[in-house]
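User: Please fill in residues for this 315-position structure.
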């Protein structure tokens, strides 16, 4: 049987001894063992899993989960895509997310003895059976528990900022996503208590790109996530992402992703060839080189360049 990539849908699965569940590329996979024992193969790595353990792994590794011979294992599982969660992140969390995502590429097990695993087990048991807003909200709490633990573990190890950028780094990390999306460069400069020129110079020095480029990238990534909703109107998405008119939004979106918003929603400019929109001449992802790209996957460089930093919206 194969892993289904329905995002934020908690499912319960039982495997008999020797039976395996393979998973295909579909975001980050979260597995919470309810009972039994087994093993997860992630490339060349293997992880032993026991009751109460939590496994988090990038499903692009094409791994599989097997029940222990002669026994069975029962577990909850669901998938989540970073691009769908993007509007929930603050500036500080965006800076940390790439490192966290890198750690999940080869899988990570949170043992039952850890506080976060015990919290996830309790949250999973309380998820409503009916797929509804309450169901998705409870599943998001599981994601939040894992990511919060990872963010807290990473922050003490983050390298110190350059003295000249201490102020801008602290301010940026304290910004809410909506502020960075909606405030003009001039308004951001006033918030940082410096000139536009100085703000851009500090951003260039620390992140390698101007403020406007970072804001545009974040606005377009948010738009890509909102377009996953088939009922969302393009003009409403444009407005939510800080565009006053649909025309410039459509042009910017196509330049970034190689397809118009409507084509993106339908899976690309050519449904039979979803990679047809990729443009080899397109410049590299502006968030990738400086560590701000949370969705980049080293084995999917073309998608990072033209399709939302390595991630595709699932239909």
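Assistant: Residues filled in for all 315 positions:
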């Amino acid at each position: 049987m194969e892993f289904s990539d329905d995002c934020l849908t908690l499912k319960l699965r039982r495997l008999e001894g020797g039976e395996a569940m393979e998973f295909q590329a579909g975001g980050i996979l979260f597995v919470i063992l309810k009972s039994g024992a087994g093993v997860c193969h992630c490339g060349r790595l293997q992880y032993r899993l026991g009751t109460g353990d939590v496994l988090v792994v990038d499903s692009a590794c094409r791994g599989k989960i097997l029940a222990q011979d002669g026994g069975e294992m029962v577990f909850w599982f669901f998938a989540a895509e970073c691009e769908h969660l993007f509007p929930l992140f603050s500036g500080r969390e965006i800076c940390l997310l790439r490192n966290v995502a890198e750690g999940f590429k080869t899988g990570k097990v949170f043992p039952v003895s850890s506080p976060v695993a015990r919290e996830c087990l309790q949250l999973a048991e309380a998820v409503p059976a009916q797929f509804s807003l309450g169901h998705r909200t409870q599943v998001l709490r599981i994601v939040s528990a894992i990511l919060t633990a990872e963010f807290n573990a990473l922050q003490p190890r983050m390298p110190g900022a350059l003295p000249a950028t201490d102020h801008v780094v602290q301010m940026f990390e304290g910004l809410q996503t909506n502020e960075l999306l909606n405030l003009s460069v001039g308004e951001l400069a006033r918030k940082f208590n410096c000139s536009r020129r100085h703000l851009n110079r500090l951003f260039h020095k620390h992140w390698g790109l101007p403020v406007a480029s970072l804001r545009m990238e974040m606005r377009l990534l948010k738009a890509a996530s909102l377009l996953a909703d088939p009922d969302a109107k393009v003009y409403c998405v444009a407005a939510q992402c800080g565009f006053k008119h649909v025309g410039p939004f459509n042009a910017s979106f196509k330049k970034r992703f190689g397809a118009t918003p409507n084509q993106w929603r339908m899976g690309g400019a050519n449904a039979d060839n979803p990679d047809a929109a990729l443009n080899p001449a397109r410049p590299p992802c502006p968030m990738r080189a400086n560590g701000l790209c949370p969705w980049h996957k080293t084995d999917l460089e073309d998608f990072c360049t033209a399709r939302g930093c390595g991630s595709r919206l699932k239909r």
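For context: The first strand starts at residue 11 and ends at 16.
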